[in-house]
Amino acid sequence: MRLWRLLLGILALLLPGWAAAQTMPAAGWQAEPALGRLMLRRLAQTPDGMLWAGTDEGVYRFDGSQAIPLNALRRGGPALPPVPCNALLATPDGCLWLGTDNGLYHFSPTGTLRRLPLPASGSQAVPALALAADGRRVWVGQGGTAVQSYTLAGQPTGPVLPGMPGLSSVLPAPDGSLWLSGDGTRHLAATGRVLGAWAHTGRTLRPVLDPAGHPWLLSDQAAYRAGAGGRLEEVLRWEQPGTGQPVEVVPTAGAPTLLSQGAVRQLAWTPGPAPRPRVRFALALPPWPTANWSGRLWADHAGHWWVFDTGTRGCWQREAAPVFIRALAGPGGRPYSVRASVRLPDGRLLVSSYETGLLTQAADSPLAPLRRWAAAMLPTGNAPVLLAVLPGPRGPGSDWLAAGAFPFLRFNPRTGRFQKLPVAGQTATDIGLRTLVLDSASGRVWAGTQQGLYYYDPAAQAYRPYAPTGRPPLAGRVIEDIRPDGRGHLWLATPEGVEHLTLATGAREVYGPAAPVPRRAAVEGARCLYLAPDGRLWVGTRTHGLAVVEADGRIRAALTPSQGLPSASVASILPGPGGFLWLGTYQGLVRYQPATGQLLVFTTAHGLVSDEFNANAACLDPRDGSLLLGGVAGLHRIVPGQVPAPPAARPRLLLTALTALSASAEASRTRYLLGTDAPPALRLAPEQPLIDLHLALANSADGRRARFAYRVRGWLADRWLGLGTTPRLRLQGLPPGQYTVEIKAATSQGVAAANILRLPLTVSTPWWNRPVTWVLAALAASAAVYGWQRGRLRQLRRENALRARLAADLHDEVGTLLTRVTMQAELLRELEQGPALRLTALAEDSRAAASTVRDIIWSVDAEADTLAALVDRIRDHVAATARATGRDVEFDGDGLPADGTRALPPAVRQHTYRIYQEALTNALKYSPPGSLIVVGLRLTALLELTVTNEVDATLPSSRAGQGLRNLRQRADLLRAELAAGPVPGGWQVRLRVLV
């Protein structure tokens, strides 16, 4: 066994790159869905930060969320045919060169596509493009026949150099020579003379130049020094001999990067005048769906590597950096939720998990999978879940103190055995333990629970509640975390906020939303604390991010989601080298620099197995200074010194497309924008009520997590509104006017874009909502009302004239005739020339007919359309009724105005009078003789008529006759309120009508 370990150790020393590749998991690679749907061949990036993809069907621009065909961006020139694009090259002037199976194309930043002539006859395929070392020419490889240089404007220049079979890449050297790769490798002088040729049976060789300008040839397994006469001298090997695989080489800054089917290897050069290559680190690749592999590797400006296979669909990308986050595999490779971790005296790593109990890892295998510690058992025989462990002998002998579900335990780190520790004065086994902390100044161990604050009494080997004055001041309180300040005080994190406890007296200062200024802050739900050496207390909360209590006692919010924090819930705070704070949140790991406010966010894209971390499951590994942070899916080891620096290229916010949405889908259209386009003027109109702005954050290391915000100057008090990670802004529903739309963006790490988009916006009013339209409409309405009133007045005058003429005719003709008949009847009765009874009846009928005619004349007479005319008529009828019947009829007009000239509508006057007549007739019919009948009339907002009488008890009580139906019919015609029924002392008919 020792011999095998010795051999493995020697092999690891001899083959460091191979050993790293074998132990490195394929972590951090993220699939790119939009590009993964294409059959990719090449990728390129123009100076504006936009990515371009050459595929089997043509060329696409990728804005971070969607791939747009080049033909949709073209503003001039011929359309690009749907043929494979073998090579893409972005030049410093912003142009894009396309090498396709159908020839050479040049796409300008203004959108003009040109087909450039090739120098030689034969195949039109262009497999290779390269920018000259001086950046002023482009080398174009035509099939396997020729290589020609072009100016940046697209003009051929210089001699045509010979190609080589299977040409796939061209590497220009600073001295003007060329290195060609294909079926072997050739070195050509600027005149075309062959300076050297090399080949390796079964191997693809790619040339690179070291810092001293010396050539090296790299295969998928080793690095060779190119010697004279085609000789190859192997200098470094990272793979054992086996089946040869294609290799892709990217000349990244400082040293090349190699891609083979199994891994990406970053090389480095040794210092000195004769540099030699070495493997800096290796990254395992995701599994490929096919064995026939032809992979491509490309590096963008934001420090990311992109990997794809030209024979299959799929694209992956990750940060171009070594693995600084290492996830420790659990037993059987299954996920496990971590609660605590600590180094044991023998160097083993102890990890407590919820599902699998206690796990360990050997001291000499920092990347080995964790294994169950079968010997670690509670007295009940169950595996414990430890919430906290205090290393070092605190209990009897060499036992450590630990806390779990019991909750207080003694732990023997050699045997793994646990013993329960009692709580003085309490028999409950579960008091909801939250944390266990050592005060190094006093040596006292403090425990925070759901039932208050406790401390360990080593003399009694028991825990006691904190009670400085005899009564525990924190009894029943939830204590999430504790931090001693070494001066007799404790900082406590509670659901209500933060408290500063003086141990000698029990006095507390409260920090929270209800505390007085300057201790007022949104820190309710405080769950983790870190007391820095400078006296500042950092507070992680459940819903408000990170806060800080300054050394002078002031508290303030330090880091929130609006400042780049991926989650408002901070589960753990761990200090790291360089003054950084490492924050475990529910949506990623954050490295925060308090001095500058800079932060970096790490997610599953960087190697995390899950973005969610557990509360207070973080510690510093004393062996190597690495950070151990536990989450819901496992434990992560973070090496702070290997965290890559932020990319030098600042992110830039781009408007990639503009969609005008009209009422009909056919009229809606999308306009794709180029980097050289001026900011478009936006317009919202009735026929175009919606506008969608498509955004992209170029040169962003994690474009899909970029955050966007916008505001409309002149609307909503110029307030910024967040879009989250949605790269689209929809404008609609703004009031008419002139505005400026401003859009800003930031990366997931909170790095703001170098620019803010400013777009003018005009919101036009619909024709029916314009001021001139309203003025014209008002004038037209006024004219219509005026014309209607004039017509109505003329009609009313005609009706009044007709009524007056009819009344006059009735009065003059029928009234005169009835008067003569009445007079003759009276004369005959006085002369006694006829039967007296008949003459009396004739006289009475004549008088009744005359009265009826007078009523008809009054009804149609336009001069009688006044309140005074109605009152006079009612008074006359009351007097006539009283005389004719001998009954007491009284008229009550106290509620009438003194001026009776108030006009009444004819229908109101006529129907009111008829209702009065019918009600009075019924009152005379049903009231006892000698009783009083009262007729009332009053006018307020309503005209109210009442007829009140006593009821004859000898008559039937029903009033449901034809007369009452007539009354209701007339009231309905007036839309009036009619009530007929008993009242105290009799019966009443009441009519209320609006006039």
Topology:
Layout: H1 2-14, H2 16-23, E1 30-31, H3 33-36, E2 40-45, E3 51-55, E4 58-62, E5 67-69, H4 70-73, E6 85-90, E7 96-100, E8 103-107, E9 113-116, E10 128-131, E11 137-142, E12 146-151, E13 156-162, E14 169-172, E15 178-182, E16 184-188, E17 194-198, E18 206-209, E19 215-218, E20 222-226, E21 232-237, E22 248-250, E23 257-259, E24 263-269, E25 277-284, E26 295-299, E27 304-309, E28 315-319, E29 325-328, E30 338-343, E31 349-353, E32 357-361, E33 371-372, E34 388-390, E35 400-403, E36 408-411, E37 418-420, E38 433-439, E39 444-449, E40 452-457, E41 462-465, E42 481-484, E43 489-494, E44 497-502, E45 508-511, E46 526-531, E47 537-541, E48 546-549, E49 555-559, E50 570-575, E51 581-585, E52 588-593, E53 598-602, E54 613-620, E55 627-631, E56 635-638, E57 652-661, E58 669-672, E59 682-684, E60 690-698, E61 707-713, E62 721-724, E63 728-731, E64 737-746, E65 757-763, H5 771-831, H6 836-860, H7 867-885, E66 888-892, H8 906-926, E67 932-939, E68 942-949, H9 962-974, E69 977-983, E70 986-994
Parallel strand pairs: 59-65, 66-67
Antiparallel strand pairs: 1-28, 2-3, 3-4, 4-5, 6-7, 7-8, 8-9, 10-11, 11-12, 12-13, 14-15, 15-16, 16-17, 18-19, 19-20, 20-21, 22-23, 23-24, 24-25, 26-27, 27-28, 29-56, 30-31, 31-32, 32-33, 34-35, 35-36, 36-37, 38-39, 39-40, 40-41, 42-43, 43-44, 44-45, 46-47, 47-48, 48-49, 50-51, 51-52, 52-53, ...
EC number: 2.7.13.3
Domain Signal transduction histidine kinase subgroup 3 dimerisation and phosphoacceptor: 803-859
Signal peptide: 1-21
